[in-house]
């Protein structure tokens, strides 16, 4: 089971919608996983967990600012470092 952050949810920008998932294993203090699911079901997961769910969301927003939200829709399933 996962502890899902309330910061998770759909994000739409420029007519592109992705699902932002921020979660950690229940009972674990290892950190928060950031995963972005595109409209086609492709997944992008950051390789390293984040200390807080807010830091994970900031990383997502920074990626959108730098690469655009459509970069998630165009990329194959990947893991970011």
3D structure, described in words:
With 81 residues, this protein is of the alpha+beta class. It has a domain at 40-81. Helix content is 25%, strand content 37%. The chain contains two helices and six strands; from the N terminus they run βββββααβ. It has helices at 53-67, 70-74, and strands at 2-4, 9-13, 16-25, 33-37, 43-46, 78-80. Strands 1, 2, 3, 4, 5 and 6 form a six-stranded mixed sheet that branches. The longest helix has 15 residues, at 53-67. The protein is globular and about 35 Å long. The chain starts with a strand and ends with a strand. The mean pLDDT is 87.
Give descriptors for this structure:
2 helices, alpha+beta, 81 residues, globular, six-stranded mixed sheet, 25% helix
Task: Produce the secondary structure layout.
Elements: E1 2-4, E2 9-13, E3 16-25, E4 33-37, E5 43-46, H1 53-67, H2 70-74, E6 78-80
Give the structure's gist in a few sentences:
By secondary structure, the protein is an alpha+beta fold. 25% of the residues lie in helices and 37% in strands.
For the termini, the CA-CA separation is 24 Å
**How many beta-strand elements?**
6
Average of pLDDT: 87
Which bin fits the share of residues in helices? 10-25%
Number of discrete helical segments: 2
Poorly predicted runs are none
Structural class: alpha+beta
Radius of gyration, whole Å: 12 Å
| Largest pleated sheet | 6 strands, mixed
Share in β-strands: 35-45%
Sequence of secondary-structure elements: EEEEEHHE
Give the overall silhouette.
globular
């Amino acid at each position: 089971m996962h502890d899902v952050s309330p910061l998770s949810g759909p994000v739409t920008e420029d007519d592109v919608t992705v699902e932002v998932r921020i979660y950690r294993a229940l009972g674990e203090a290892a950190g928060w996983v950031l995963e972005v699911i595109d409209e086609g079901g492709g997944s992008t997961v950051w390789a390293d967990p984040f200390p807080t769910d807010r830091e994970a969301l900031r990383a997502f927003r920074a990626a959108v600012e730098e690469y655009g939200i459509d970069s998630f829709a165009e990329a194959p399933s990947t893991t970011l470092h």
